[in-house]
Specification:
Shape: elongated
Helix content: 25-40%
Strand content: 15-25%
Binding site for substrate: 252-257, 316-320, 386-391
CATH architecture of the domain at 518-582: Sandwich
Subcellular location: Cytoplasm
CATH class of the domain at 518-582: Mainly Beta
Catalytic activity: hydrolysis of (1->4)-alpha-D-glucosidic linkage in 4-alpha-D-[(1->4)-alpha-D-glucanosyl]n trehalose to yield trehalose and (1->4)-alpha-D-glucan
Family: Belongs to the glycosyl hydrolase 13 family.
Number of helices: 15
Structural class: alpha/beta
Number of strands: 29
CATH topology of the domain at 518-582: Immunoglobulin-like
Pfam family, one: DUF3459
């Protein structure tokens, strides 16, 4: 990519918010320069520097050069100096990408480091035609912000503005997004604003970035305590950067329930307003997808109607309902799920827990969704995510435990539903690779604590500690990489073709694009284990059991896993099979 000539030296204004130290000096290529502070705690200096100059900040009398909290690039890792960076000319202009909303789309979640053997943006580009053939509309990449070590999930980022260098750095991300756009694929960036990672977190030395509270991943971000205004601005500017500078079409916002905001203007509402403003400036749609376990419809209610204005949210209830009905698993947070009645309730209403008692939480949970005003496309349906695999003790996918017919049923229930749909990489061909929790913390004590904590967590749930993979072992990372030679072989290839045809049907049939849950009709037989979902002129017929069943549905078979027999008003289905019927 064409870049500014690094040998050209120009005056550059360096600025850093650092209200805590009494003195801040700028280090540019090893030369210290004084900085001046304003009344809001911002320090500034104008210094001649090359376009790719290395720089950092020295606080008070500590000689350590710290990276810029808003670092545009960290070529040597999160503990070292930052580097100036500006994007070159964009390829997307030639591609004619106009963007689209994620509502009603099919999203494909992937992890750059394990999507391909090389684990880089450029190698991921080589697989984009696979996604185009599959028919997905958006790629959602797990966090690519700078984090400690060479590989990890990315949720322990510490320099949110920089791009993880082993993936290809900021230039690699620009190439990846442009390559997606030229193929008609939108891109969502997974952004983590609810905590900071443990390795390379120097932000508290600069200012009050952390609050007095905490969440399961560490100290909470200060978005409501003293000094919060500039921290909120830090978040908002970072979010805008992914969309304006890199060209992303939106963000997936990690665990927004951990963003504790007691102010009258919630940070998510503020982000929604600024995203709409940026969308207008850029002339293309931008989407915000929130991960939340609150089952609170206010999250996806428009701001004009008193909501927070998120475009959509992940819906774990749908995952739990589908997965448990098909697999039979009932442990942990699956305890309230598993019946066909639960599956029907969840698909009809969006949330299962909607002011109802949650045995896992031991309290009432959720709030009813107004299905007459909020379309189903504001909720994401999926049978697999990085969390639902990687947070299992041995990272096992459903494909490692279920029959192919069961996987086809799960796919049809999610992709055939009125909801916005999401897949997790490799799901479409029943990848045999696990997706494990892996990390590469360079600090020995942190590495040991991570490994021991993982074993202890699952040992408490009855697992043999020796069976839990060490997240710091490089082989744990390597084992999680997809094996692409499976895609076209045997049953893997057959399932891939089924997914492709299912997505194509979803895209081409107007009845399957109807977003209103009030139009959804469901019937089931708990004992016989069949499930019937009607959408306009289509009937999705599933046999979740092992014995042949007769379902009161008829029509022409459009797509099937198994060999359905339609006779009169009855469809006979063998065990673990599914059919999509079009009314005659």
């Amino acid at each position: 990519m064409a870049m500014t000539d690094p040998d050209t030296r120009n005056d550059h204004e360096f600025a850093v918010w650092a209200p805590i130290p009494e003195r801040v000096r700028l280090d540019v290529e090893g030369v210290l320069h004084p900085m001046e502070r304003d009344e809001k705690g911002w320090w500034r200096a104008v210094v001649e520097a090359a376009a790719d100059a290395r720089y950092g900040y020295v606080l008070d009398d500590d000689p350590t050069v710290l990276p810029d909290p808003r670092s545009p690039r960290q070529p040597d890792g999160v503990h070292e100096r930052s580097q100036l960076w500006q994007p070159g000319p964009r390829a997307e202009a030639a591609g004619g990408w106009q963007g689209r909303s994620i509502e009603g789309a099919v999203i494909y979640e992937l992890h750059i480091g394990t999507f391909t053997p090389a684990g880089t943006f450029d190698s991921a580009i080589d697989k984009l035609d696979h996604l185009v053939d599959l028919g997905v509309d958006f790629v959602e990449v797990m966090p690519v912000n700078a984090f400690g070590g060479t590989h990890g999930w990315g949720y322990d980022g510490v320099l949110w503005y920089a791009v993880h260098e082993p993936y290809g750095g900021p230039d690699g991300l620009v190439r990846f997004i442009d390559a997606c756009h030229t193929r008609g694929l939108g891109v969502l960036i997974d952004a983590v604003f609810n905590h900071l990672g443990p390795s390379g977190n120097y932000l508290p030395k600069f200012g009050p970035y952390l609050s007095s509270g905490s969440n399961p991943w560490g100290e909470s971000i200060n978005i409501a305590d003293a000094g919060a205004d500039q921290v909120r601005r830090y978040i908002l500017d970072c979010a805008r950067r992914w969309m304006r500078v890199f060209g992303a079409d939106g963000l997936r916002l990690d665990a927004v329930h951990a963003l504790v905001d007691t102010t009258a203007y919630h940070i998510l509402e503020e982000l929604s307003a600024e995203t709409d403003e940026l969308s207008s400036d850029l002339g293309r749609p931008l989407s915000l997808v929130a991960e939340s376990d609150m089952n609170d419809p206010r999250l996806i209610t428009p701001r004009a109607h008193g909501g927070l204005g998120m475009t959509a949210q992940w819906d774990d209830d749908i995952h739990h309902a589908i997965h448990t009905a098909v697999s039979g698993e009932r442990q942990g947070y699956y305890g309230d799920f598993g019946t066909l009645e639960t599956l029907a309730t969840t698909l009809r209403h969006g949330y299962f827990h909607a002011g109802t008692y949650s045995s896992f939480r031991q309290r009432r949970h959720g709030r009813p969704l107004d299905t007459a005003t909020i379309p189903a496309t504001r909720l994401l349906a999926y049978t697999l995510t990085h969390d639902q695999v990687g947070n299992r003790a041995i990272g096992d996918r459903p494909s490692q435990n279920l029959a192919m017919g069961q996987l086809a049923i799960k796919a049809t229930l999610a992709l055939g539903s009125p909801y916005t749909a999401m897949l997790f990489m490799g799901e479409e061909w029943a990848s045999s690779s696990p997706f494990l929790f892996f990390s590469s913390h360079p600090e020995p004590e942190l590495a040991r604590a991570t490994a021991e904590g993982r074993k202890r967590e699952f040992a408490d749930h009855g697992w043999d500690a020796d069976e839990i993979p060490d997240p710091q072992d490089p082989q744990t990372f390597e084992r999680s990489k997809l094996m692409w030679d499976e895609v076209t072989t045997g049953e893997h290839g057959r399932l891939y073709a089924f997914y492709r045809d299912l997505i194509r049907l979803r895209h081409t049939e107007p009845d399957l694009a109807d977003p209103w849950l009030d139009h959804l009709q469901i019937d089931y037989d708990e004992t016989a284990r069949w499930f019937l979902m009607r959408r306009g002129g289509f009937a999705i017929v599933c046999n979740l059991g092992t014995e042949t069943v007769e379902v009161p549905a008829s029509g022409d078979v459009v797509l099937a896993w198994g060999e359905p027999d339609v006779a009169g008003d009855i469809t006979r289905l063998g065990g673990h099979s599914v059919a999509v019927l079009r009314s005659r």
